[in-house]
Specification:
Length: 176
């Protein structure tokens, strides 16, 4: 069931131009990064500047009309974000900017027993309890990641998650 939450369309269905674009931008695999006792699984979404700008600023593009599951967090020992405990399987979600609200990162607790996902579309985050919600601050960088790339690093009592998407870089820090 865990794989279903992060499942997306690996091969697009349909021969339309929109279908071809969707196939080009579809993730090619689920990957994981791990440091110490924290594992993170994510999909390698292809960089799409137009979609990211719509998420960042709001807009009519379909990408900006809903939230996106970025990753699943699997700590084997307790970690916290903003003082709230993160347990295995919580989702990291990127919510688009809406009205005057900025784009945000959210960590959400979900009940995996109630997740039903259509494997032919990019999964929308299932309902659940929000543990953490804060503005998603992406900075421009000189290097371009053609696909979403996550990395973990361990610091003094912290675990940092770096999120590199296209020419943008963001991070979240978890405490032990």
């Amino acid at each position: 069931m865990t794989r279903l939450v992060l499942s997306t369309m690996i091969f697009a269905v349909g021969a339309s131009a929109a279908g071809a674009q969707q196939e080009e931008n579809a993730p090619t695999f689920i990957t994981a990064v791990e440091v110490a006792d924290v594992r993170v699984r994510y999909l390698n979404f292809r960089w799409n500047e137009e979609a990211f700008e719509a998420l960042e600023k709001g807009g009519d593009m379909p990408a900006a009309k809903r939230s996106w599951v970025i990753a699943r967090l699997y700590p084997s020992k307790p970690i916290t974000v903003d003082g709230k405990p993160i347990s295995g399987g919580n989702l990291l979600i990127l919510n688009p900017a809406r009205d005057d609200a900025p784009m945000t990162f959210e960590v959400r607790v979900i009940d995996m027993r109630e997740v039903l996902v259509d494997p032919n579309v990019i999964a929308e985050p299932p309902a659940g309890r929000t543990l953490y919600l804060a503005p998603a601050r992406f900075e421009r960088t000189d290097t371009v990641a053609e696909r979403l790339t996550l990395a973990l690093s361990e610091g003094d009592g912290t675990i940092k998650l770096s999120i590199h998407y296209g020419d943008r870089l963001a991070g979240l820090e978890f405490a032990r």
